């Protein structure tokens, strides 16, 4: 069983490696990757792998950023200390979701699930599932609109009309391409999961739609400073840790 581990904590990665080898003697750890950028570069080489164990929060972003750029060639077991990412994990071809600290029992259950699925679906079936998941002709079950309260009005805002989403004074706002702003009763994390791949969380305060960005300048601190196609009083920048993932996303 050819396995990849994506984990930026050395002790956790080593513990997982030893656990896998103890519970699954056929396990071969092909690579241990510690960042989003490193993983994107590795998967672009299209390695032959059977199973991926991945942390979610990495030093330069979330592991979901990896699979927005490259399509996984194997099922993914997401390992994290947080439970709020579960829905998005299974939207990214997740086989299982393990909360840290993991135990022999939790890893054993995951391996048994993997073996059961491998017996049921051969490799061609797995590839067919991936192809179906990537088929643009499949019906889109993602929500199309967002309900906002504006004064005494209940207004449906089309997600495609949202240009950016941001936090200000602990409130979350959306701004449309026409410059209209609305407060929403959601966290920025919830908005990030709702908006989809045309949007990117460039920093802790802002999520931007791709076509909202006019151009970017490289600042003195090696951050990308963005110029938008709409008026927005706050200067928005992309941290150097997210630079490569952002550029991959910006290319579409």
Automatic annotation (TrEMBL):
<dbReference type="Pfam" id="PF04397">
    <property type="entry name" value="LytTR"/>
</dbReference>
<dbReference type="InterPro" id="IPR007492">
    <property type="entry name" value="LytTR_DNA-bd_dom"/>
</dbReference>
<dbReference type="InterPro" id="IPR011006">
    <property type="entry name" value="CheY-like_superfamily"/>
</dbReference>
<dbReference type="InterPro" id="IPR001789">
    <property type="entry name" value="Sig_transdc_resp-reg_receiver"/>
</dbReference>
<dbReference type="Pfam" id="PF00072">
    <property type="entry name" value="Response_reg"/>
</dbReference>
<dbReference type="InterPro" id="IPR046947">
    <property type="entry name" value="LytR-like"/>
</dbReference>
<keyword id="KW-0597">Phosphoprotein</keyword>
<feature type="modified residue" description="4-aspartylphosphate">
    <location>
        <position position="55"/>
    </location>
</feature>
<protein>
    <submittedName>
        <fullName>LytR/AlgR family response regulator transcription factor</fullName>
    </submittedName>
</protein>
<feature type="domain" description="Response regulatory">
    <location>
        <begin position="2"/>
        <end position="115"/>
    </location>
</feature>
